[in-house]
Design brief:
This protein is of the alpha+beta class. It has six helices and 13 strands. The strands form four sheets. A four-stranded mixed sheet has the order 1-2-3-4, with helices on both faces. Strand 6 and strand 7 (192-196) form a beta hairpin.
Length: 302
C-alpha cells in the first residue's frame, strides 16, 4: 500500500508544485476556494520524522504539508536548503524541543516553527504536528491528524486539513450548492431553515463544518426530499434536488384519494331500482290475472 500511495504522491507533487506557492490569498473558485485570509506570520517547517514507515513517503507528505502552508501564508516559507544552510551541526539534532526550535527560528528570521512525526496506524498514517512561537519559546498548538487512508485524494485532503487545523482552524469548512426545479420550496440543513428556493448566491451555502449533513427540501403538493450530503474541505458539493408530485399531502394535513363512481353503481340507485322492479312485477301479475268482459250484441267481431 505504501509504495502505491508513494508513487501517486510523487505524481501529484510533480504536477502541483508549480502552482502551489502563491504569494497572497487565492481568489475564491467553486472547486478551489482557497483561504479567506492569508496568515501574516512568517512560518518555517523544520522537518517531519518517520516512525516505522518509509522515510521517502514521509518526505512526500512533508512536501504536501509545506505546499499547503505556502498557500495559507502571506509570506514565502524558507526552503529546506535554506534551513540546512543556516543551522549548526548541534541544531541538526533537534527533535522537537521548544528551545531548540526557537533557536532555529531566530536564525531563519521567522515567527513560527513547525515540526512533527508521521507514524503508521494499521493501514493508515497519522501526522502528529506542533507549532512553536519563536519569540516566547512556547507551543502554540499541537494536533494529531485523522487517520490518513483510502484514495490519494483523501490522503491529500487529510494533509491539507492538518495544516489548517494547526494554524488556521477557523478556515476549515466547505460548501454545498443546492439546485432544484421547484420555486418557493422550503430548505433546511440539519434542522436549520435556510430560506426558500431559489436560494441566494446561486444556491451556494458556505462555511459549513466538514462531514455529514442532513438536507431537507419541502413544498406544498410534493413529497419532501431528505438526504445526507458530505461537505469536503474547501470544495463545493453539488446537490441536485428533484421533487416528486404528491396527491396525499396538502399543507400539514392528509387527503384521501376519492374516486368518482358512476351513479348507477351507487347503493341508493340499486335499492331504488330493486323496489321499482318489485312494484312493476306485482302490477304485471295483477293485470295478467284479470279478465274483462265486453258486451257487444249484433257485432260480428265479438
Amino acid at each position: 500500500m505504501g509504495r502505491r500511495i508513494l508513487s501517486l504522491l510523487l505524481t501529484f507533487v510533480a504536477v502541483a508544485a508549480p502552482v502551489a506557492a502563491p504569494v497572497g490569498p487565492v481568489a475564491a473558485q467553486p472547486t478551489d476556494p482557497g483561504p479567506e485570509a492569508a496568515l501574516d506570520r512568517k512560518i518555517a517547517v523544520w522537518r517531519f520524522d518517520a516512525l516505522g514507515i518509509e522515510p521517502e513517503l514521509v518526505a512526500r507528505l512533508e512536501t504536501l504539508f509545506r505546499m499547503e502552508l505556502a498557500r495559507l501564508s502571506k509570506l514565502p516559507l524558507p526552503s529546506q536548503r535554506e534551513i540546512e544552510r543556516v543551522v549548526t551541526a548541534a541544531q541538526q539534532q533537534c527533535t522537537g524541543e521548544e528551545r531548540c526550535l526557537s533557536a532555529i527560528g531566530k536564525k531563519l528570521g521567522v515567527d513560527v516553527v513547525v515540526t512533527g512525526t508521521v507514524g503508521a496506524m494499521g493501514q493508515s498514517y497519522v501526522l502528529n504536528i506542533k507549532a512553536v512561537e519563536v519569540a516566547t519559546q512556547k507551543q502554540i498548538r499541537r494536533i494529531e491528524s485523522d487517520p490518513l487512508r483510502g484514495s490519494p485524494d483523501e490522503l491529500i485532503e487529510g494533509v491539507r486539513v492538518a495544516a489548517y487545523r494547526l494554524l488556521a482552524p477557523e478556515q476549515i469548512h466547505g460548501a454545498i450548492q443546492i439546485q432544484t426545479d421547484i420555486l418557493g420550496a422550503e430548505v433546511q440543513l440539519d434542522g436549520r431553515p435556510l430560506g426558500r428556493t431559489p436560494l441566494p448566491h446561486v444556491g451556494v451555502v458556505g462555511r459549513l463544518p466538514l462531514g455529514k449533513h442532513t438536507l431537507r427540501v419541502q413544498a406544498q403538493g410534493y413529497d419532501p426530499f431528505e438526504d445526507e450530503v458530505t461537505v469536503h474541505f474547501q470544495k463545493v458539493s453539488q446537490v441536485e434536488v428533484r421533487m416528486l408530485p404528491s396527491s396525499e399531502v396538502l399543507g400539514t394535513g392528509k387527503l384521501e384519494r376519492i374516486e368518482r363512481e358512476p351513479f348507477y353503481t351507487r347503493t341508493w340507485f340499486l335499492v331504488g331500482v330493486g323496489v321499482a322492479a318489485i312494484g312493476l312485477g306485482a302490477w304485471i301479475g295483477y293485470t295478467a290475472g284479470k279478465v274483462d268482459y265486453v258486451s257487444c250484441p249484433g257485432d260480428p267481431r265479438c
